[in-house]
From TrEMBL:
Protein name (database record): Putative secreted protein
Gene3D superfamilies: 2.40.128.20
Organism: Amblyomma americanum
Signal sequence coordinates: 1-19
UniProt keyword annotations, A-Z: Signal
Superkingdom field: Eukaryota
Length: 158
């Protein structure tokens, strides 16, 4: 009787272990696919939400309109919709960007290239896409070491 129980337990563990990576791979593929569709869809993308810790370093009203899509790139506007006095020290300007979405192991990544070179360093970094639907995606904006553990800051566009 115990041998049958151990055999059944072994079978269940092997089945669970073998389905884990394929489910994870499918989820990763879905995130990539959904992000790719979101940045290529007609209409505007808006900054919907951001981690509270990014309050001082992020413009509150960002918008992007689709200009053109090619096989691998989405060309969009990058617009800061704030009065100059609300921008403070920010030197963000309205510009045209190219967005590349790449599958990268566990997460998809998103890279923004600015045509004029006016976007500052955090925007042009490679960002992990933590989750996505066809209309919305969550980017990991920054990872900082907060005592006693690491903390991830995020932004949501949709």
């Amino acid at each position: 009787m115990r041998a049958v129980a151990f055999l059944a337990l072994g079978f269940v563990l092997c089945t669970v272990a073998s389905t884990g990576p394929s489910l994870h791979k499918k989820e990763s593929y879905d995130i990539y696919n959904n992000t790719f569709k979101a940045v290529r869809r007609n209409g505007s993308l808006h900054l919907l939400w951001y981690s509270n810790e990014l309050n001082r370093s992020l413009s509150k009203c960002l918008r992007s309109q689709l200009l053109e899509k090619t096989k691998h790139v989405s060309r969009r506007t990058f617009e800061v919709n704030e009065k100059p006095e609300q921008l403070g020290n920010s030197s963000l300007a309205n510009t045209t960007i190219s967005i590349f979405v790449k599958p990268a192991g566990q997460f998809a990544t998103l890279v923004v290239k600015d045509d004029k070179g006016e976007l500052q360093h955090p925007w042009t970094d490679e960002h992990q896409v933590l989750n996505a639907t066809m209309r919305c995606f969550v980017l990991q904006a920054a990872v900082i070491q907060a005592t006693p553990k690491w903390k991830s800051h995020c932004v949501v566009f949709g």
